[in-house]
């Protein structure tokens, strides 16, 4: 898809799917399609059967319309669109740089604390493997456990904070930033989904271990289901943004399966909490409040990420006017707030033992 400058008649970068476009064809010109988005912006596009060698004629046709004074109101809207096209990458880069600074400063502080304070490094949990072995003499199964390694739990905090810092740095790293903006123009951001996969797995693993889950038979499914849920949501975005055009109505099956897969993570936390209870009735007071706070942050991280995607595809409010750019900003904000909250709660109340 090509956009054109009203003054120079030169091809502008392909518009991002953040600008929602209708599929109605303008009948004023047979060689050029003038498409109007919901925000009143017109986009010039060659016909689908227009070859690369003949795109110059489309430029000439569009320029002819402007030079002869036809569709002057559309020319004004094309200028408006090109101004937005020039600014949205700059605005998003500035937004990413702001949160990159926040991520780097916070992550650096945690790395310093990890290497300076021994209490942070000593915050560990034995990770073991359990199985039921059949005893021929007793003719029954017996539970066998073997410790595999000791996990420094704060490394999970460092992992998801580092992942967030990397995901916000893609807008200014040479070559990578070009790939980043090319993906955004198609309505997909692979860097974001890589961060979501890593962060979801680490957040859920941290919450599980804090509730006492140390068996690899449980931890591996928690990590796997977290990644699977994020990947299904990536498919939901990918399938419904084909060739940079939003598909309406959206194909919702990947989203439904992502939520179902995610729900299977939480029985691990609940069962561990119930089994660690010493009384016959479950007492929520047996766990400190900050642990429920961490679980709530992990829950909100996933839930708000889903909501952000749903609002983008529904076109509600600013998600409909600004589209993927707004959804991208929302995801960055959700990521920083949720991760920082879990990290500081873990450090302050668990590692340092503040009551």
TrEMBL record:
Residues 45-67 have a biased composition (Low complexity). InterPro entries: Heliorhodopsin. Keywords: Membrane, Transmembrane, Transmembrane helix. The chain crosses the membrane at residues 97-116, 153-181, 193-213, 219-236, 256-275, 287-307. Residues 1-77 are annotated as: Disordered. Residues 25-38 have a biased composition (Basic and acidic residues). It holds the Pfam family Heliorhodopsin. The keyword Cell inner membrane does not apply. It comes from the Eukaryota. The keyword Cytoplasm does not apply. This is Uncharacterized protein. It comes from Triparma retinervis.
């Amino acid at each position: 898809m090509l956009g054109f400058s009203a003054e120079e008649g030169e091809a502008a970068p392909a518009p991002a799917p953040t600008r929602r476009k209708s599929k109605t064809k303008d009948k004023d010109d047979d060689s050029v399609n003038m498409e109007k988005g919901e925000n009143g912006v017109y986009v010039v596009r060659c016909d689908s059967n227009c070859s690369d060698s003949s795109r110059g004629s489309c430029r000439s046709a569009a320029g002819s319309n402007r030079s002869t004074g036809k569709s002057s109101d559309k020319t004004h809207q094309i200028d408006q669109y090109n101004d937005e096209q020039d600014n949205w990458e700059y605005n998003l880069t500035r937004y990413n740089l702001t949160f990159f600074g926040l991520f780097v400063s916070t992550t650096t502080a945690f790395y310093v604390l990890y290497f300076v304070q021994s209490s942070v490094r000593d915050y560990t949990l034995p990770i073991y493997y359990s199985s039921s072995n059949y005893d021929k003499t007793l003719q029954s199964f017996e539970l066998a456990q073997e410790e595999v390694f000791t996990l420094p739990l704060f490394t999970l905090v460092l992992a998801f904070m580092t992942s967030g810092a990397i995901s916000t740095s893609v807008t200014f790293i040479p070559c990578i930033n070009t790939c980043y903006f090319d993906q955004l123009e198609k309505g997909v951001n692979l860097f974001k989904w890589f961060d979501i996969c890593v962060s979801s797995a680490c957040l859920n693993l941290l919450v599980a271990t804090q509730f006492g889950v140390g068996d690899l038979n449980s931890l591996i499914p928690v990590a796997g289901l977290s990644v699977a849920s994020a990947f299904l949501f990536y498919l939901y975005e990918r399938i419904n943004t084909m060739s940079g055009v939003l598909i309406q109505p959206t194909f919702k099956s990947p989203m439904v399966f992502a939520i179902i897969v995610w729900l299977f993570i939480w029985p691990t936390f609940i069962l561990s909490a119930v089994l660690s209870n010493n009384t016959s009735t479950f007492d929520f007071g047996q766990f400190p409040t900050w642990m429920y706070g961490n679980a709530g942050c992990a829950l909100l991280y996933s839930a708000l990420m889903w909501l952000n995607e749903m609002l983008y595809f529904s076109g509600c409010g600013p998600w409909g006017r600004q589209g993927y750019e707004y959804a991208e900003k929302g995801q960055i904000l959700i990521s920083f707030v949720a991760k920082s909250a879990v990290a500081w709660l873990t450090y302050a109340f668990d590692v340092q033992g503040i009551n």
